[in-house]
Amino acid sequence: MPDSLNFIDEILHDLKSSGLYNDIKVIESAQGAWVVIGGQKKLNLCSNNYLNLANDPRLRQAAMDAISEFGVGPAAVRSIAGTMSLHAGLDKQVAEFKRVEAALTLQSGFMANLAVIAALVGKDDTIVSDELNHASIIDGARLSRAEIKVYKHNDPDSLESVLKGVNTGRVLVITDGVFSMDGDIAKLPQIVAIAKRYGAMTMVDDAHGEGVLGENGRGIVDHFHLHGQVDVEVGTFSKAIGTIGGFAAGSARLIEYLKQRARPFLFSSALTPPDVAATAKAIEILTASGEPVERLWGNARYFKTGMSSLGFDIGKSETPITPVMLGEAEVAGEMSRRLFQRGVFATKIGFPTVAKGKARIRAMISASHTRDDLDFALEAFAAVAKEMGVIQ
Ligand SMILES: Cc1ncc(COP(=O)(O)O)c(C=O)c1O
Q1: Closest ligand 1 atom to the C-alpha of 236?
Q2: Which of 32, 78, 315, 356 could bridge across to 323 with cysteines, CB 3.0–4.6 Å?
Q3: What pLDDT, in 10s, does the model give residues 371-386?
Q4: Ligand 1 centroid vs 46 CA: distance in angstroms?
Q5: Are residue 112 and residue 232 in the same domain, yes or no?
């Protein structure tokens, strides 16, 4: 009898032979500058834990206190019985932090994109999306059944020429705030101005901008002083905030509408009490001090300058995300393996996360790294790249 799952073996075989197979490492310690893998300490250049909050004692304490008071589970979707005072409090706190009228927390950034996009547009409408937008935006757009038109990466002229050709239904322009694989920042002022001229709604996914851009890490809208001009900001707590969860932020009427229409809000259970309490503590910490964000940027500048002087191509990043451009997936994979042997955990990124021929190692710099850590990483990159002939 033919095996109906044979296609899986073929695909897995192809991934392995083309260097695109994802070998997932198991981390045996808490997140931080160094992690334990296979019983050995490795310098962590992979995580999105930008501000080192994922294992911060204040967040841990907040989570434990919430467990003592509220238990571990939300017990329902928020609209039925899962909105605790904790969740309502976090919605309000996020809105204040983002300097918008209202916010709604959801289970993840991915869910937030699915929730918002499919609520704002439907089959008679159009989405105009940057060609390098995150997978969760692409999936949210597909789910909405709206027509999807793509503009050239971060190119306002291309956005305008696409918008010129759209004349029916609602139109939603969507961009990542900071592009996750390249680290460049969306030209949001121009994007918003053009969208307004064509009567389109605007949405920015600020996943890599939170905790990184703007005053005390308030994100891209704050960075460009565009408060009140972007219709919806989507974000995640899973990166700089150090926890898990996502949110949508904007006007009070937008959030009221999402509470009635956003399907992941209506049909999937809420974040757990410890998630919510730890997230609230992280936002409280950020509101009180910009020091962790400054430390992050200091580290990023130091590492990026070091990599450029060694002769690496680090793309066009404007943020702590540092793509080390290597071209072929095999080269990126081999470099990642050799770095790992030297004590540096830096995974390769290949197709389909980035285009074919644009494989890279994405080094994620965080506030947790010391100068010694960064020097250790620079020495390892230099040694491995010289062995492989990637730099002279
Ligand atoms: C731009 C962007 N949006 C959304 C997400 C998803 O966020 P979460 O991990 O909270 O689902 C990510 C995470 O990789 C991201 O980079």
Answers
A1: 10
A2: 315
A3: 999 999 999 999 999 9
A4: 14
A5: yes
